[in-house]
Amino acid sequence: MAIGIFQDRFKRPRVRPERTWFDHILDFLTLDLVLFNLGYAIWWYPSLPATIPTKFGSGGQVVATGPSGTILLLPLGGLLLAIVMRAVQRWPWMSNTIVEITEENALVQYRLVNRLLGWSAVVVGVLFLVTEHQIVESAIAGTNPGQAGFVTILVLALVPWPILLGWYLWWSVKYA
Q1: Residue 38 pLDDT exceeds 60
Q2: pTM of the predicted model, to two decimals?
């Protein structure tokens, strides 16, 4: 079995797997999260002080602040990431894979890549929303979110990825 990351992406089979109802649900969840993130930022923007927290330390204490307009960076960054992930789903042969893509396994491998990207977009949307909420709460209350807020973001930032990548690697190698 060759390693797919070293494979010439321009020589891979160019097939697009049909999108399933579950793929559409993941797209819908991602769109909802992006729009909710943007709406949340716009809703709270007038209530924010001139400076808001932009960086937190390991104990949840505010380390850096910035202008209140930076609250829009998270939803805009989430929108950009969602667009990029959806574009890669459109051209899955351009993605990095752990196994070599052949005519025989292309359809199933591309479907796995698309599902991984769909779930990744949802996880990033949730992470950005929770982070944005912590920033707004901290800015309005004028206090640090504390250890609980830091742990929440840390758990959301670390826990889903080994699960998602483990799932992808297992099935990718199985269907190599």
Answers
A1: yes
A2: 0.89
